Amino acid sequence: MSYKFSCVQLYTEQSKHNPSTNTGSKDLTIDGVRSVGVSDSVGIIKGSVTSSVKSTENPLQKELMDLSELNCLLDELGPRFTDWSGRDPMPVDADLLPSLVSGYTTPFRLLPHSMRHCLTNKQMTYYRRLARIVPPHFALGRNRELQGLATAMVKLWEKSAIAKIAIKRGVENTRNERMAEEIKNLTGGTLLSRNKDYIVFYRGNDFLSPDITKALVEREKLAELNQDEEEQARSRASSLIVSKTIISKNPLVAGTLAESLAANSRWANQPSSKEMEEMKRDLALAKHNSLVKYLGKKLTQSQEKVKKAERALGKVQKYLLPKPLPTDLETITDEERHLFRKMGLSMKPFLCVGRRGVFDGTVENMHLHWKYRELVKIIVKGQSFPQVKQIAINLEAESGGLLISLDKTTKGYVIIVYRGKNYQRPNAIRPKNLLTRRQALARSIELQRREALNHHIWSLGERIELLKSQLDKMEDLKGTGNDELYTKLKDAYSFEDEIEDEGEEAYLETYEDADDSGDEEQNGLTDEAYLEQD
User: Fold this and answer.
1) How far lies 309's CA from each of 306, 438, 449, 507, in Å?
2) Which of 37, 195, 286, 419 lies 20 to 30 Å from 4, alpha-carbon distance?
């Protein structure tokens, strides 16, 4: 393989003329490469270090003032603090500045366009680092009446972005928090840092020098004067315009109620008392018919909702595969049943079955309970006796236990289930053929909705039949002129406002279960809870 570079060709020609120096040249080239690489790396490191130092020192050198200029500026601000023990220059004694300045106001501030009102995190860090090496400008020992200090700080901010205040040592009742709050209210600056020794303030992005402030205030006053002159010119011009409209002496009555009443009294045919009564009857019948139509519409809507609830219930019920009752149930004597019933009713730990009914968590808790006891006590609240009986049969079939008794107590219906003499704990104590906790809650909600809708449909049907019968009687008594007709119409409209309040979910509030929250907590008992109750 041959290279066409000129340097390579020159090297090959030299190696052919001086073959004895090949090995030495190799060593020299290797040493040369090593030396060049080390020197280059050192140079790069030195260059990066110097560049980083310059990049950090340049902005600091721009902000730091010359010592002589700083002394001259501090002399203009006020008397020095002669007891200063720190580095030069000596700060201004803020306690010797006037506490109150006549006519002092907070400096006028205006944020430039496309500028943030607050400092960014990088800017805040930069100014805090700058404040560490800047000597303090003021020495303060009092907490309030700092208008003289505020005036001096505003003057300092014309040439410096930050103002550093040293807190005098040995002065009693000094609170840097109160000092910082007072200075911020007087100057409007931004607090950068505050500790037991120093307080640092930034002048703010909206700070304006006195010359710019004066110019802006003058322009604002000039704009207000021009606006006042324009308003005066408009008022003078409007006074010169002569109004040519003719003002009528008589009051205007066209289109008013008085004109309508006067016209009706002169030209309209006033209905008689019989005609008025007939109109009232016709109006009442029309309202009655509209009410019947409205109730019929509500009835059809409720029937559609029932179908929707049944479809939703069917989606949940497809996950429920209940077990049939076992044919080979264990038998016990009457004495044993009586003894188990007495023991079960006197037990303190119990399970609670609420609106969810029997689901996989209920059977799981029964098996956890049977780990330490032969009996389990289950309390059912808010259910009728047929429903409780069905729950007891389901518990007996799903758990594999033996139903001892079903009693009614002050706390609700109590179900006692015996685990059996040959009880063996199954591998999976949570059955897969029952609904989960969430599915059981959804099933309970759909059942409640369907029951409420059926009750609502029944009440609407009864109401419609009653109104139709009343409407037929009214049609029969229409020509007789009986006064009983009008009283029946008044009674018929007593339910109209109630119908308007029945929305889609209003019927659910009637069937709300008050024991819902308590039932959910009781279904989650574990075997540790049973041990503690014993």
Assistant:
1) 5, 17, 7, 14
2) 37
